[in-house]
Amino acid sequence: YRVKRAGGGHSPFEPQQDGRSSSQVERLSALHRAIERDELRLYYQPKVNAQSRVVVAHEALLRWVRPSGMVSPLDFIPLAESSGLIVPIGRWVLREAVDVLRTGRLQEVCVNVSALELRQADYVDHLRSLLEESRVAPRQLWLELTESSLLEPRFISVLQELKALGVRTAMDDFGNGYSSLMALVSLPIQMVKIDRSFIAGVGEETPDEVRALEVVRGIVALATAYGLPTVAEGVETLEQANLLTKVGCTDLQGYFFGRPEPLP
Ligand code: C2E
Ligand code: MG
Ligand code: MG
Ligand code: MG
Questions:
Q1: Whose CA is nearest to atom 23 of ligand 1?
Q2: CA-CA distance, 167 to 159, in Å (whole number)?
Q3: How far apart are the C-alpha atoms of 136 and 140, rounded to whole Å?
Q4: How far is Cα 93 from Cα 90, in angstroms, rounded to an integer?
Q5: ipTM reported for the complex, 2 dp
Q6: pTM of the predicted structure, to 2 decimals
Q7: 36 C-alpha to center of ligand 1: Å?
Q8: Interval between CA 106 and ligand 1 midpoint (Å)
Q9: Which of 37, 86, 212, 241 is the most exposed place for a label (fewest CB within 10 A)?
């Protein structure tokens, strides 16, 4: 039995009382309305330098704030990607993040980018003019891309253009998926984010503990050998933070240091 929420009506992003889930069409029109009603927000999560524990950047994470509660990006980004809506949403995200930099509210911001956005022929030109108009230094912005998009061969030239522009790129969720160690060391990227699934096993009193830490140690060693800094995502305890620092992670990010929050 579900209590009816204030505001009435069911959310197309939750199962209905009879257990059916809403149709794609309902979900898509709800997402369209979210954009029109200005219900998307960016929350920011800090990233710290492992050695000094000083905040060095913030990751922008999309939130859909509805009157009935918050919808996780995991619940609407796949739909935004399959429908193409991620392109206008991604432009909004970039504009917001660059504005936060322009107004000096943050010094360095990391933005998540979907493959479909990168496939837009004018992606880099659009980003370049956005930065120029706002007089924001390209080095203040990082783009986080997942392995699946980085492995498309045609993206290599986009990565090179971004590098030439001075916007840095990170491989997000490394190790979760069809990771290629070759790709890691051969792509023109500037940072590797080690997937939370490895970090979760670090510092646990289980036989897997050693392996999780050893896997991270291996990734860090390889990345470091190629001059690539690393960031561990999903750091939740002091013990994890200290072990990850010891194996040489450059930066740390996770609930232990701060949750994603709206800017004041
Ligand atoms: P991601 O880029 O790998 O972001 C990290 C996710 O882990 C975020 O989930 C963050 O809230 C969560 N997280 C951070 N620290 C911890 C921790 O210590 N423990 C745990 N359990 N979780 C932690 P979130 O915000 O739900 O975002 C999920 C995914 O949605 C992101 O994964 C990213 O792939 C995607 N996403 C978010 N915002 C955007 C966006 O603006 N554009 C695009 N294209 N994708 C986005
Ligand atoms: Mg990310
Ligand atoms: Mg990630
Ligand atoms: Mg992840």
A1: 234
A2: 9
A3: 7
A4: 5
A5: 0.98
A6: 0.92
A7: 23
A8: 19
A9: 37
